[in-house]
Every structure is written in structure tokens, then in C-alpha cells.
Amino acid sequence: MNLCDIKTIKETMAMFGIHFRKEFGQNFLTNNMVVEDIADACCDDADSTILEIGPGIGSLTRELADRYRHVIALEIDRGLIPVLKYTLDGYHNVTVINEDVMKADLPTLLAPYFAKGKVSVCANLPYYITTPILMLLLESGLPFDSITVMIQSEVADRLCAKPGGKDCGAITAVLNYYGQPEKLFKVSAGNFLPPPKVDSSVVRISLYRDKPCKPQHEATLFRTIRAAFEQRRKTLPNALSAVFGELSKEELTEIVVGCGHSADIRGEKLSIEEFTALSDALWERIQQKQ
Predict the structure, then answer these.
(1) Distance between CA 222 and CA 228 in Å, rounded?
(2) Spatial separation of the C-alpha atoms in residues 8 and 21, rounded to whole Å
(3) pLDDT over threshold 70, residue 24
(4) 169 in helix, strand or coil?
(5) What is the full DSSP assignment across 218-279?
(6) Distance from C-alpha of 285 to C-alpha of 216, rounded to nearest angstrom
(7) Is 10 or 290 the better-scoring residue by pLDDT?
(8) How confident is the model at residue 190 (pLDDT cuts 50, 70, 90)?
(9) In the prediction, which pLDDT does 171 show?
(10) In 3D, which of 264, 208, 232, 23 has the Cα closest to residue 129?
(11) pTM value surpassing 0.85
(12) For residue 251, what are the contacts with CB-CB under 8 A and spacing of at least 6?
């Protein structure tokens, strides 16, 4: 059964009386090579467990199951559960769960698999919810080995941007705190059914076991990043003043300059290491004033 064949996809959906659902961002891959490349890139350890988010009709699921020890597939669309039971018949190392990843109890669900070895994430994410899902995974505290996602190319450019680039944003800095993102390859819209209006890219995030940046107060680091990009056209001291109201503009300028930056620098120029150092200086000054 070739689940990337357009005729097979349509026949399978007709067999179960289901249709593409825009609210779930459903676009199924029609290129076997792309599916195989994603599965290959997902992990370098065949003894791993893979958490797949949004398996659709199971084309990527089957490739993952052929390569790795176990696959946990979370599918939000109840109508696709019987389809997956049909397309994954005979794949005894796949567990399909009808649940929204944003509401799932991932620590409890994945605890037995973390106890056995590495766990990585693989997903073809709907464009409208890419960032919330990524932040959920990153902030979960779960020791994922890597996260491989196919997302809108524009979003991929932001995730993998370098400091100072036009695509650099808050998500860029936050992501670099948790791991190293790498854009692997582009997937044109013609490789999907139905074809989306934009192209996609596959990004792999290799997560740090031991973060190289260790802020004194993590919440202040994220607060600093948010402030820097909420008003990115302003100089960094002015942008910070909108969020750090407990410090004067003079104090903020003094702290920015004290960290080795010019007073007119903008936040987009800072690396995650520089954001960490700045957040530490801000945290120390706030503590002194209490």
C-alpha cells in the first residue's frame, strides 16, 4: 500500500467517508522520497521511541515504524483513527492515540519510553499552531533527544535565523536556548494533497542535554527576550523599559552598556549567550532594589 499515491489517498479516505479538515491543517504528503527523508533525519538511533504528532493516514508513521523501536502517534482527528488502524495493520510497534498534543499528559504518557532509551519527536505540523506546539515540547522539561518538524518555510527561516538577520525573532532566541536548529531541506507545495499555498521546510532541533547557557533566573531571560522583540524597532534600553518598569531608563541603559553593547543597539543583534548575560545583569539589579 503506497500511502503517498494520490489515488490511494483518495480511495482510502472515500472508503472511510472522511474528508480533509482545514481546521486541523490537514495536507498529506504525496512524495515517497520526502517521507523517507524525514524518517531518516528524525533520529540516529534505531533503538529510539518516536513521538509522532499528527500521523494523518499513516504514511510517515509506517516509515518511522520501519526504522525505530516504537512509535507513539497522537492524532487529534477522531475520524482518522479507524483509517490508521487499517493502514497500520501489522505494525505492532505503533501505538495510536486519539488526543490533542496540546492537552495530552506527555510526562505520564512517555515516562515508560524514556525509561527504556531515547525519545525523539517527528511531526508534520499545521501552520497555524507550529509555535505553540514547539513551545509546549520545549517547555515540558522532557528530555527529548531531538525534534524534527515539517513547517512553513517562512517559519523555518525564523527558527534557524542568525542574530542580526531580518528573520531573527523571539522564537529564534528561545529555540537557541534549548537546542541547535538546522534547516534540512525544502518541500514544495506540489508534494501535498491538497497543496498548501506556501512551501514547507524540514527542521531538526537537536536538544541540549546540558544547556550551555545557564541564566540565574530563567523567567527573567524569557522576559528579556520578549521585551527585546516586542518593540524591535526601538533601541534595546527603550524596548526593555516597556517590560522592566521597576528599572529606570537610565538604569537599563547603564546595564546594556555594562554588558558590552552600545546604548543604541537593538535586541535582534544579540545572541542567546548575550541575552543570558543581559538577563543576569537585570536580575541582579532588580534583586538589589528589593
Answers:
(1) 10
(2) 18
(3) no
(4) coil
(5) HHHHHHHHHHHHHTTTS-HHHHHHTT-TTS-HHHHHHHHHHTT--TT--GGG--HHHHHHHH
(6) 12
(7) 10
(8) very high
(9) 93
(10) 23
(11) yes
(12) 285
Residue 19, all three cell numbers: 474528508
Task: Show the cell assigned to 83.
Answer: 483509517
| pLDDT at position 21 over 70 | yes
Contacts of 273 (CB under 8 A, 6+ apart): 212, 213
Cell triple for residue 254? Answer: 547603564
The C-alpha cell at 55 is 500521523
- What distance in Å separates the CA atoms of residue 257 and residue 49, rounded to the nearest whole number? 47
Q: Is 228 exposed, middle or buried (0-12, 13-18, 19+ CB in 10 A)?
A: buried
Residues contacting 10, CB < 8 A, separation 6+: none
Distance CA 244, CA 43 (A): 41
State how far the Cα of 170 lies from the Cα of 61, in Å rounded to an integer: 32
Closest Cα to residue 129, out of 101, 166, 107? 101
Q: How confident is the model at residue 221 (pLDDT cuts 50, 70, 90)?
A: very high
Residue 35 one-letter amino acid: V
